[in-house]
Structure formats: structure tokens, C-alpha cells
Please model this.
Amino acid sequence: MLSATEIALLATGIIVVLVTPGPTNTLLAAAGLRAGLRRALPLIAAELTGYLVSISAWGRFFAHAAQAWPWLPSLLRVAASVYIAWLALDMWRAAVALPGSTQRAGNVRALFVATLLNPKGLLFGGTIFPAAAFMHLPAYLLAMGMFACLAAPIALAWIGFGAALGSGRLGWLEPAKVQRGASIVLGVFSVSLAWAALH
Model:
């Protein structure tokens, strides 16, 4: 089974990575903007399925590769922390633009493919999920259960965010401030991930 530290790091990693803007979240928000909250709900299942396949494939690959190269997990975590730090800096500099209501928000298949190819799947499978999750079925079920329980409400929040923008209820919201706040959270997580990899 997973230790309390592994569970805490996993939960933190899932939340921090999933709340940050990316291709899947942009499609979810755009669907909420274009179709409304209720009609966009089936996209949550598409996101969860896409991540399940992607994380499982990457996780199994890295778990077996780590047996041949024991230093690989630590190297991947350091590389991931550098990548997340770069994302934080990039997010601080640029505002996130959601597709307008006239643009196609995507359907279930499009969202599944976007999630399947999302680099976050590699990040989860290679660094954030503990290796034990891909070696022992109980640990896998626990980790994936946690992921689904955290990912579904975050996806719902992104859809709701898009729907609120579409209704004009968030006219007071400044995207730059939201993005800078998210970049600070990303930066803190980057440091914690590097610390865990090196200690």
C-alpha cells in the first residue's frame, strides 16, 4: 500500500496539476461557455477515461524502466519540477485565453483524444503517481480512485467557470490575477517535487 507521505504528495500533485490551464481544461471551459454546465457534463467521463489510459500506460512503462535504471524516477521528478517551474514562469507572463463562444468547444471524442495526448498524463504516470501504484493492484486502485475523486470536481469547476463566463457572471474577474495566483501555486509545487526527488 501507499504511505501517508505518498498519499499526501499524490493528492497535492493531482490537485495542483489539474487546476492549471492546459488543453483539456481549456476544452472543458469552452464547452461550459458554449453549451452550458448541464450539457457539458459528459465530458468529465471522457477526461477521466483519457487520463486513466494515459497515466496507466506511462506509469507501467516507467515502473518497468526503473528496474533497469534505478536513478530514473529521481531524474524524472527533477525534470518534472523544472518543467513545472517553467510552466509557472510562462503562466505568470501570459494570460490564458479561453476560446470564444463562436469557436467549437469540442465533443466527447475530441476531449478524450486531447486528454490522452495531454503531457499531464506523462507527468502523472512518470513522476506524481508513486511507482508502487503500477506494481501492486491495491495501490493502483487506491491511486486511481483518489485521482478520479479529485479530477471529477476539478473538471466540473472548469466547466462551471466557462458557463459562468458565458452568462456574464464573472465580468469582475481579471484573468491575469487568476493566472498569477495559479503560477505561484505551480512554483511552490515545483520546489516540493524537487525536494522530494533529492531527499
